[in-house]
Amino acid sequence: MFYHIIMKNFKSNLKNYILFFVSNILAIAELFAFWGLNDVVKKAVKDGVTAATLKSDFVLAAGLITFITVFLMIFSMKYYMKLRIKDYTTFIVLGMKKKTSYLLLLVEYTVGCVFSLVFGILMGNGILYGAQTALHKLYPEFLKVTAPGWKIYRNTCGMSVANMTGVFLILLVWMDGRNLSTLISKSEYNEKRPVGKKWILMVLIGIGVLVLGENQYQGSDLSYMYSHIIFIVGLFLVAAFGVALILEGLKHRKQFYHRHILQMNQLYSKYMNNLLILLILLVIHFFALTYLTVEIAEVLPLDKYRENYPYDMVWMAKEEDEAFAEKLVRKYDGNMTELPMIRVTTYYGAQHIGVSASEYEKLTGKDVNLSEREILVGIEDSEYQKEKKITDEDYLNTYSFLFTGKYQEDMAEISHTDPQYLYDIKDIFTQNVIGQYSTDQWHENIIVFSDTYFQKQWEAMRGDDQEATVLRLFTFSGKRKENAWKELSEYQKECGVKNDSDTRMESYLYGTEEYLIGQKMRVLFSLSSKLFLMMALFISAFFVNGIKILSELSGYERRYEFLRCMGMKQKQRRKTIRFETQMLSDIALFATVMMGIVYVFSYEWRCASKDAGSLDVTFWMYWILIVGIYLLADRLVQWLFAQYVIKRVEKGND
C-alpha cells in the first residue's frame, strides 16, 4: 500500500522535483565550467600577454560564480527538501515509522544528488569544451583546446557534496524539532524583517563598508581586486536594510500602501526568504554593471590604436650578431641604431631594457646626469603626446628594487631589503623612445643607469651567451620591411637570445606591424571573453530569478484565484503578477546601476591618480550604451518570463 502511495505522490509532484534537480545540475555545470576556464586560461591561451590579461578576469569570475552557484544549490535543495519533508510527514501520519521515512528520504536525496553531480559535471565539460572550441575557431592563433586538471573534478565534487550534505542535515534537524501538523500545513507565515529606526545603523555601516571599498579600490592592484568583495558586502547591507526601512516608511503613507500592498506582499511577508535571492542577483548584476562594463568600454572601439612607433623592429641581441645585422641593413636598404643594453627584471618578473645615461642622451637628446645607483625610468606610452611625470607609489616601489639580467626563478627568494638590488629613482616619466611593446605598460620600459654602474654590469654579462647585450633598432621602407622581418625572425629563432620559458610576456624581437596586428587581435579576443562572461552572468541572473518564481508557482495560483473570486479584473491581476515576478530583479538592478555610476567615477579617479589621464568622451558613450543595452535586455527577458508565468497561473486556475 505504502509503495503505491509513495509512487503516486512522486509522480504527481514530478515537475517540481525535476525543476529543483535541473537547477542543481546547472549550478554544478556552471561551477565546473568557470573553475575549468580559470584553470586552463593560462595553458589554453597561446599568447602570454593575452593569457595574463584574461587571468584576472577569470579569477574574479570564478570567485563570483562560485558564490552564485553555491547559494543557488542551497536554494534549490532547500526547497526540494521542504517539499519532500511535507510528503514524508504525511506518510508518517499514515503509519510509516519515522526512522523508515528518514531512511527513504536519505536514499531518494542521495540518488538525486549523485545524478545531479554526474550530469552537472558532464554538462560543465560540454560548456568548457564548447566555449574553448568556439573561441579556437574564431582565434586559432591565440587559443588551443585544453583539458582541465583533475583538481577541478575533485573541487567541484567536494563543494557539491558538502553543500548537499549540509542542507540535508540542517533541514533534518529543523524537521526533528517541529510537530507533524506544522510540517504538513501549507499555510504561509509572515517572516520577520528589520523594523525600526535602529536599523539605520546597518545602512550606515554598509555605507562605511563602501567607503572602505573605495579606499581599497584606489590602492595597489591586489587591493583593487579585493575591493570588489568589499563593495558587494557594503552594497548588500545598504540594499537589504535600506529596502526594509523603505517598506516600513511606506506603511505610514496609507493611500500609497493600500494601493500597492498586493504587489509588494512578497517583501512584507517573505522578506528574509527573498534576501538570499536578492544577494545572488546583487552579486551578478554588480560584476556585470561595474567591472565588466568598464573593461569593455575601455577597449572600444577596436580600431583606436595609434601607431606611435618610431622603429619597424626592435631586437635585443648579442655582440656577435653584428655581422648579420649589418648584412640585413645593406640587403634591404634599411637603417639601424645600435647601443649597449642589459636586461633588467623587477621583483615580480617583468623584464625591461637597461641602458647607460650617455647612450640614452644620444638616443633622445635629453640631458641626463646620474651618479652611482641613481636611475631614470621611462615608461613607454603608445598614446604619448607630451611627457608626464609619474609619482604613483606602485611605480616607485616596483622600480626601486631591480635585478640586472633576465628573469631567473631564484629571484623571487631574494629579500626586498637587500641593498644590492635597491636603487635611487631620480625620475619616472612617460616617453615614446622605442615604442610600447606591452599591453599594461609594466613591461619593456627603459631603465637608465649611470655610466659607471651600467658599464660594470654590461661587462659582467658580455661573456654570457644567454644574455642580450646590444639593442638594435631598425627601420625599413615598403615591401622590403616584410622580407627583412622574415629573415630576421628566422635568424632569431635559430641563433638569438631567448627566454627560459615560453610563458614569458616579453620577447627579444619585436616587429611593429606584427605586434600591432597581434595587439588588435588580443583586444578582440579579450572583448569576446568579457562578453562571454557578461552573457553567462546575465543568463545566471535570469535563471536564479526564474527558479525562485517557479518554485512559488502554486502560491501565485492560489493568490490569483483568490483575487479573481474577490472581483479583481484580469488586467489588474496580470499587472500584479508581472510586478511580483520582476520586483527582486528590479531592486537589484537599481542598486547595482547606482553602484555602477559610483564605480565608473572611481575608475576615472583611479586612472587620474595612476597618471593614466582622464576618460575621454568615447569611453563614456560606450559605457552608457553597454549599460543601456544590458538594462533593456533584462527588461525584455523579465517581461517575457512574466508573460509565461501569467499563462501558467491562468492555465492552472482553469
From TrEMBL:
The keyword Transmembrane appears for this protein: yes
Keywords: Membrane, Transmembrane, Transmembrane helix
Keyword Ion transport found: no
This protein's GO CC annotations: plasma membrane
Stored InterPro entries: ABC-4_Integral_Memb_Prot (IPR052536)
Transmembrane segments: 17-38, 58-81, 102-132, 152-174, 195-213, 225-250, 271-294, 531-550, 583-601, 621-641
Family annotation (PANTHER family): ABC TRANSPORTER PERMEASE, ABC TRANSPORTER PERMEASE-RELATED-RELATED
The protein, known as: Bacitracin export permease protein BceB
Species in which this protein is naturally found: Dorea longicatena
Gene encoding the protein: bceB_3
